[in-house]
Design goal:
The chain has 106 residues and is α+β, with helices and mostly antiparallel strands. The protein is 50% helix and 13% strand. The chain has one domain: 60s Ribosomal Protein L30, Chain: A (2-Layer Sandwich), CATH 3.30.1330.30.
């Protein structure tokens, strides 16, 4: 995966208002099934990873691990973020295609 392209895509998603960031907002988006893709920071706490993997699996929403909390936050013009939800099908598909592997859940 080209990390620079992924960061750029997250920036586009943010500017087009197709994301939710932060643990509370992401949890709500997942539970309401408004999320199309969940991105979890690789350095998120174990509790955060377990919680969001479980919710994502329950809701049938794919997720990927990418970057650090600081990198995710910087990509969307915010402070460090452990989780980001993509709400747009097209953006989610583009980001999913960028990763070398398939999302962990469908």
């Amino acid at each position: 995966m080209n990390e620079h392209k992924m960061i750029t895509m997250l920036g586009f998603a943010s500017k087009s208002r197709n994301i939710v960031s932060g643990e509370t907002g992401c949890r709500i988006a997942l539970e309401k099934k408004k999320a199309k893709l969940l991105i979890i920071a690789e350095d998120a706490t174990n509790g955060t990873k377990v919680l969001f993997e479980r919710i994502s699996a329950q809701q049938g929403i794919p997720y990927i691990f990418f970057g650090t909390k600081v990198e995710l936050g910087r990509a969307i013009g915010k402070s460090a973020r452990s989780t980001i939800v993509i709400n747009d099908d097209g953006m989610a598909d583009s980001i999913t295609r960028m990763v070398k592997y398939e999302p962990q859940s469908k």
